[in-house]
């Protein structure tokens, strides 16, 4: 996955930009507020269909402008494509080779990108939702049908919750028995499809995660467990479960047993659900539990340990997608070096760069950013280009950034 | 400057159409004004004629200009086989496959607690009335392959069970989340062959 040319108009602090990133590594250096993160955000948005940092899309339109536009010339899987995005207060529209993209959820599979950002610490520190979101983000890039399974599950969940609220705590389940059964079945069917895909995804992801975490931290063994709200399925899903490439028939069987387990669990918790007005079992309640030396990283991990786990999750995402898709995703590293010591920085680069193709790295420093020595050694100096970002414009810095910063 | 009142009104009317925004409405209006009078008159009379002559079939609720509709009135159709769909457009989609020789029943929607559509808002009573006549042996549940369509099929399968009529569901293989009428004819024909009992 590679962006050959990126054009922006009225996006964040960019009035107009026409930029050709390096085929290998582009290092983007500039002071705070220059527009480095904005640039990565624009690329991510055009490829994957949503911003990695905001849900209020209007705020990405440059202040004072009516609409923002992004155009990306992209090469993925040997195919060239043109992506165009228009963002107006009424909403956004993405066109792929001149045709509107109907299902934005399909974009991540076509144009996978892996973004490291400071907020990733939440993967290790935050509530379960952050890790579920991570799994679903990787899932969409990993399999074509993941997004449909996720969308169906969310829809069925919203419908079933609406039904529970309509019926209310006083409802006798008898009078609404047929309706409840119908929505249990619809939810169980969709959710089993999602669970089965998560399971297959974890089959590959857990191994990668343990491997890269060991390589990054130097020693400790990370234990990874998918904690399901579905006790019966917990066993099926134990330890990240099944073979990654289960035969279609086995997959069908697994999905069937997950559906059975969900049906039973839904019947069991129904009284509590009617009381509370939402669905209490399903993939929307699950978590990815991470333990170091027997203790939950989220609760007991030190800052450094949590940072290593979060980085390992992103590296594992990158490694898994690269192996699965046969070519590396676009690698976006936003501000990851500032908080790492020299040794960790080298390990991170050593794990990523030899496997990566196009990579964008930002650093908020004047002059030579810390770690550039290691960067050049690992990536090979001929693959690295230096750019200076300054209040919404980008200039190449010929021959590294030893030269004085140019405007 | 504002558009003269008749143009503004035309734009406003066009804007009420689904999928038509202000810009498209303006473009359509200006386009129409550039066409010869006969052409515009033909469009206007087509709109009115369709509106005046088309109504839901009193049996199946498919859109028709006769009553009952051509399908309900066709004696060569298999009256023991009934296909239940969400919308009139689904009838057209299934007819295009030339694979189905029974009759239809249009529900006019699908169950959706989120949008406040319950079983009573759909044409389920008329369906039960048709089944009571005793001629129908199999009901094919061809609601959309999305979660609302799935839930509606589940609901109907359970509702019809005590009546002793066989129910089947269009086989999967349909794109998830898709509208039935977007599915190509080959996929739909295959789905009809592979319908499964539920
Ligand atoms: N809609 C907008 N219109 C105009 N400017 C905006 C808009 N949104 C953000 N900005 C500006 O963009 C700048 C932030 O850019 P960005 O986050 O890319 O900085 P950065 O180069 O990554 O800095 P740092 O090194 O601090 O991370 C801020 O100065 C902000 O005011
Ligand atoms: Mg930044
Ligand atoms: Zn009819």
Descriptive notes:
The complex is a heterodimer of chains A (407) and B (198). In chain A, 44% of the residues lie in helices and 22% in strands. Chain A is built from 12 helices and 15 strands. In chain A, the strands form 3 sheets. Chain A has a 6-stranded antiparallel β-sheet, covered by helices on one side. Chain A has a 6-stranded mixed β-sheet with strand order 8-12-13-3-14-15, with helices on both faces. The radius of gyration of chain A is 23 Å and the shape is globular. The two termini of chain A are 30 Å apart. Chain B starts with a helix and ends with a strand. Chain B is 41% helix and 12% strand. The chains are: A alpha/beta (407), B alpha/beta (198). Chains A and B meet through helix 5 and helix 6 of A and helix 6 of B. Adenosine-5'-triphosphate binds next to helix 1 of chain A. The site of adenosine-5'-triphosphate has 17 residues of chain A, from helix 1.
Mean of pLDDT of chain A: 90
Quick one: overall form of chain A? globular
Give the overall shape of chain B, derived from the CA principal axes. elongated
Please give the share of residues in helix of chain A.
Answer: 40-55%
Q: Whole-number radius of gyration of chain B? A: 20 Å
The third-level CATH topology of the largest domain in chain B is Dna Topoisomerase Vi A Subunit, Chain: A, domain 2
| CATH architecture call of the largest domain in chain A | Up-down Bundle
Question: How many whole angstroms does the radius of gyration of chain A measure?
Answer: 23 Å
Give helix and strand order of chain B, one letter per element, not per position: HHHEEEHEHEHEHE
- The spatial strand order of the largest sheet of chain B comes to 4-3-5-6-7
CATH arch. level architecture of the largest domain in chain B: 3-Layer(aba) Sandwich
Helix count of chain A equals 12
Major protein interface = A-B, 24 and 19 residues
Strand order within the widest beta sheet of chain A: 2-1-4-5-6-7
The CATH homologous superfamily of the largest domain in chain A is named: RecF/RecN/SMC, N-terminal domain
Return the structural class of chain A: alpha/beta
